[in-house]
User: What shape does this take?
Amino acid sequence: MRRLAVLLVFVVAGVTSPARAERTALFHFRHFHLRGDELRVILDSALFVSSPLSHSSSTRDEKGWLVCIDLASTKPLANRARLYGPLWDAADAQSSLSHQAGVVFTERDQRAAAARAFVAFDDTGNVVRIRGDTRDILELAPSAARWRAHGSYRPSEGRLPPGSEDEVQTLTHRHRLRRVNGQVQLTETLSGVRVPDPWLEAAFATYRGMKDMGNVRAWVTDDLQYLVCFPDRAWSRQRHDGPPGLITTFEWGGRTYDRPKWAFYFRRPNRDPLIFQKWSESGQFLFEEAPAQTIAVEGEPYFLYLTQAGPVLAPLAGGTRLSSPVPPGDGWLRFPPTDIRHDPAAGELLFFGRNDPRFNGTIDGGVMLFRWSYRKGPMTRVALPTEELFRRSFFNHFVPKNPLKIEDR
Assistant: This one.
């Protein structure tokens, strides 16, 4: 009996004692920009906390950093990289989804979002910070940096839910189209300044006003010459206005088109969409049918597909397809690229990724860059172990080894 009682004591103690929370240091890469031969990365370091007795995880001690790397140099990374920071400091705990996607659920998430502000690259590679209706730009020097006032920010009128199809941005995020209360406006993303464009705004209004037109991938090319719409195979109307039903067609000009077979795009200055037949590329990530992006190459729209064999550029109007094999080494399509950029003047596509994906998009590793000069040759690969610029503290945080101070204004 005594041995049984002792065993019961240990069992009860094991059940009722608090479970130990797991703490893991991590990185989260947020934005990338290639400025000449200098790669610029905005990332944050944080502490991921999970507990087996909790239905959700949290993140704390989040700090933002700017890393600038000279890609033309062959020196070790520590000798050709500069690390500035912190760009922001959100020490309090927040939900992991707030940290990864910026979604606000609680007051703690709201405080973290306020501390983080909004920090990103503009289309020329400058670091811009938006707080409320103020806008700052980061002035960089070899040994330090400082925030300088850079005009005001005009918040958008009206709110749209995350992932709303009433908003679309260009690949560079320089411009965005929004439809709020039936009104469409084109604005600069990082200033909020209106950019009147009657043709593009009318095209977007036409697309969003089409009957039963939901569950659509839409892109605006960086040159603002094309609005491309790729309806998915079906759309469930039971979650929207109107009687329940699965929509598998769309209508235009008195004709009905099957969504699995047809898509459409607007080409400046035409007011009516051009309907074209879909095609697919084999070997896409997660058996995806839609392209990853639409870009303009020498004035013509091309679909960009990401396949296991490499990237493919296919013209919407038909013609010569461009493709590249995957270069030797790991990293291509382990996860979709974190960011894609197009340099039309150089005829180059840039795919930014990460070495070691964990925690549904947060990262503990380095940067992976794939460069494809689609008119000149195959894609190349550059692996940059940015974690080498940090060390682990006694409390399991990532701490920068040689940070350059940022002065606030």
Q: What stands out?
A: Residues 2-16 form the longest helix (15 residues). Residues 158 and 392 are 44 Å apart (CA to CA).
